[in-house]
Amino acid sequence: MTASTDRPAAATILVGVDLGLPHFDSELEELGQLAQTAGMEPVARVTAKRKAPDAALFVGKGKADEIKQLAEAMGASEILFDQSLSPAQQRNLERHMGLPVNDRTLLILEIFAQRARSHEGKLQVELARLQYLSTRLVRRWSHLERQTGGAGVRGGPGEKQIELDRRMIDDAIKRTRERLVKVKKQRATQRRQRERRDTFAISIVGYTNAGKSTLFNALVKARAYAANQLFATLDTTTRQLFLQDENAGGGGRSVSLSDTVGFIRDLPHGLIDAFQATLQEAADADLLLHVVDAANPHHPEQIEEVQRVLHEIGAADVPQLVVFNKIDALPPEQQPRTAVDAFQVEGVQVPRVFVSSRTGEGLGALRSELARIVHAAAPPPPAEASAPGSS
To answer: 374, 354, 328: which is closest to 202 by C-alpha?
Structure first.
């Protein structure tokens, strides 16, 4: 095979440990989607239940032996854990199983590295990967880069192998942070310009694969990349959206609409820190369009995860309009009875609109609701001066 894209996906064992947390994915469905997004092929799924992780092998020696035997039987070339592993646990597991062992954090970082397109996005991913690397052995970097060849390595586009000691990594982190500071200043300047123009800013947020980019494209006729996969797009895109206000005598107003990166459970803190410049769009918005995949049975947990991240980035107090998307995928008995109603988010009633970004159903109601909110938020016109001599 001459191209890396022609290589078969690496057979991978998925492992999840139930530590008694409410969001445990017993089917490892989301981890499987992440793995496939990164170009891996899950061939078996293993779950275990523990009160606490084993300090040395995370799952304990007995379960580690079971996973090793299963990997040999299935011809797997990699083990992937749904939880974050400590550097020592990762190293011990690799020695025990004789295979590369990775965790959810590295997987998300790799997907982000594959998908970042803008200069800012690439800087943010680079910073997050350097921060992850700083806690691992130096050799983890070459494994992260997916050099071709060698047992258990699934290959990929390949990058120049980087061998950095801790001092060099720290220097690289410092340089990347300085470059991101410049990006933040540029964004701050852009925000001040919008404020001077009195532009109402709306940011689309939501769990990954909720249909944010598809909704964004439908509203502003943009061509932002959208696909039925996790983290289809990472770079923030902003366009102007004109909203016709029926209550303003047929007039209307242009607003700024931004599509942001999707959230996910257990998003690595390094990524949250690194993506502050992008996520700042949400924190500085006048309104958040919180998009929910109404057809996903786990959408209540996904809403909670989005709220958690909004708290982390300082956007919890920004008003929200909840959009239940993908209603075309709902069975008849679950179809909404009305296009607009109220929905409770953290004890607060917020407006909710039901739409299908794919078919266009409900988009008119969404535009009307947005126009109502923007009109209500607009400052009242200045009072006319009294005519001379009037009482």
So the answer is: 374
Cα(290)–Cα(204) distance, rounded to whole angstroms?
6
The whole-angstrom separation of Cα 285 and Cα 273 is 19
Q: Tokens for 161, please give them.
A: 């192998």
Tokens representing residue 356 in the block? 């299908």
Side-chain half-sphere CA neighbours of 355 within 13 A? 29
| H-assigned helices in 225-275 | 269-274
> Is the Cβ–Cβ distance between 51 and 57 less than 8 Å?
no
Query: For 198, left (φ over 0), alpha (ψ -120 to 50), or beta?
Result: left
Rounded to a whole number of angstroms, the distance between the first and last alpha carbons of the chain is 90
Beta-strand ranges (E) seen in the chain are 10-18, 40-49, 78-81, 101-103, 200-206, 237-244, 252-259, 287-293, 320-325, 340-345, 348-354
| 345/260 Cα distance (integer angstroms) | 20
pLDDT of 72 reads 96
Query: 6-41 pLDDT, tens per residue?
Result: 456 789 999 999 999 877 888 899 999 899 988 899
Global pTM value: 0.75
